[in-house]
Amino acid sequence: MEEAGRERDRTVAVEVEDTSAATKDAAAVSTKPAKRYPLALWIAILGLIMLVGVYIFSLSLKQNGMLFGLMQANMIEKEREKPCHDPRIPDAEIPYVHYPTPNTYDRLVTDSRVPRFVREECVCTGVRFFAILSMQRSGSGWVETLLNSHPNISSNGEIFSVKERRSNITAITKTLDKLYNLDWYSSAAKNECTAAVGLKWMLNQGLMKNHQEMVKYFNRRGVSAIFLLRRNLLQRYVSILANAHDSAMKQLNGTHKAHVHSKDEAEILAQYKPTIDRKMLITELKRSDKLASDALVNFKNTRHIVLYYEDVVRNRTKLMDVLDFLRMPKRKLSSRHVKIHTKQLYDHIDNWADVNNALMGTRFESFLNGSSRRRS
């Protein structure tokens, strides 16, 4: 019995010693500092990851560029095979010259045994597609009438002012397809085969909302963009307020006219001097400025030209740049539009002192003296 008891005590002692040793080992492990990698090593690893990412991204861009190049080369080759291809057109211009086959220009010929429809007037007539991209009260109506005075240019007006036509991307592309197929009837256009056909499109009429799809559409269909913007946004704002007033009051014999064709009508409309909310003025100017800037950025990868209303007013030869852009023969352009606000800006604003105080010291200060430049 005593021997058995001693054996049990020795066993317990061994277990206690083992447990104590394990505890010491665990403590030694837990108190041993963790191995840390040098900061330089982490920076090197991060740099390597970034280099790999940049390399993969560059490969992607290269592949996309090659794909676009192959698509364009394929398009050029197909155009060359068409019977209407003009060998004088440079390869770079081929994607922008089209040969629509409209349905609405069909003419019934009855001088043969079997009456038939023909499209003789449109066969092999190369057509360039364009869009005047602008903002309300920026001179787009005036410039469009100037372009429409050219016998080879036909612009169809502000067709997306109708909400249903811009309700979604499908409605927009359907409308554009009909327009560029020369099947769109408009009182503003010539409705016949011309060398350039387009429309006037305001930035806030579904264009910016669907800008990604529109950039793809423009590039795919070979549409050239003509930006027409206004430098002095304060003058534009005065025009917006005056136009809204006439829309409500109908000052010209009970009718509203956004554009006038006589000096008498212009003088009547110019008599109204809007009172501008100084608290909202800078916000409105910033909003308009951002909209125009965003449009130029979003459509920078399209074939485009940028015009400013003030430049065209001072120098009509700026429109010759547009004719060159559309590859149209140069000729004198004319319009019946009469400018409404012709006096100094302070003569067209009722609370000029408030407006002056609101803009002094801001980046829009230069607008006060009619200048088109603003501080960044």
UniProtKB/TrEMBL annotation:
Transmembrane ranges, per UniProt, are 39-61
SUPFAM superfamilies attached here? Answer: P-loop containing nucleoside triphosphate hydrolases
Q: Which UniProt keywords apply?
A: Membrane, Transmembrane, Transmembrane helix
Concerning InterPro entries, the annotation shows: Nod_factor_sulfotransferase, P-loop_NTPase
Q: Which Gene3D superfamilies match?
A: P-loop containing nucleotide triphosphate hydrolases
Q: Which PANTHER family match?
A: OS01G0784600 PROTEIN, PROTEIN, PUTATIVE, EXPRESSED-RELATED
For this entry, the protein name equals Nodulation protein H-like
